[in-house]
Design brief:
Layout lengths: L23 E6 L1 H6 E11 L3 H8 L3 E2 L4 E5 L2 E5 L2 E2 L16 E4 L2 H12 L3 E11 L2 E11 L2 H26 L1
Antiparallel strand pairs: 1-8, 2-7, 2-9, 3-6, 4-5, 5-7, 8-9
Length: 173
């Protein structure tokens, strides 16, 4: 006669999988945006794309020059961003400068809409990249800089570079 026994055995610890660092592959960046605007706030958003657009982005065929973000009827849109047509595409190819919907949470869209209603603020895309196989865009909310602000920023950057060079030569000599 076999007895039914309940064993209180602790579950075996599962093998810990090392925390994986997400792979971020840059496609295009808008260097001019940080020069022309004083960026106050930065967000990451997903982008709704078609198949040929993703293939063109994998080939690195994108430009964010003159691109901006607009909020229309509760949705955020990336406008005037250029994603070149896919070379092997056929009649299914996309329009290079079409509006592309951005994937953001409702409270983020409302906050962006509120900020751009203030005088002088605009939303500009800063970079476009792959994050674990998905296309993301980094957008910044900022005010346009005046001409003297731009000159002052350039002067400060040049001064910092010269100071670093002199420190480097001092350490060597």
């Amino acid at each position: 006669m076999a007895k039914n026994r309940m064993f209180n055995v602790a579950p075996t610890p599962s093998k810990k999988v090392p925390d994986r660092v997400p792979v971020k592959t840059l496609i295009a960046s808008n260097k001019r945006a940080r020069h022309d605007y004083a960026i106050d706030d930065v967000l990451e958003a997903g982008v709704v794309l078609t198949g040929t657009e993703v293939k063109a982005l994998r080939a690195g065929r994108a430009s964010l020059i003159d691109a901006y973000v607009a909020v229309d009827r509760g949705e955020a849109w990336l406008e005037a961003a250029h994603i070149a047509e896919y070379a092997q595409g056929t009649w299914t190819n996309h329009a290079p400068r079409r509006k592309r919907k951005l994937l953001l949470h409702r409270f983020e869209i409302d906050r962006l809409d509120q900020r751009i209603r203030e005088k002088g603020y605009t939303i500009v895309p800063l970079s476009l990249y792959f994050l674990d196989g998905r296309v993301k865009v980094e957008i910044g909310v900022g005010r346009g800089k005046k001409e003297w602000d731009k000159r002052q920023a350039l002067r400060e950057r040049q001064d910092n570079l010269e100071a670093q060079r002199s420190m480097r030569y001092r350490e060597l000599g």
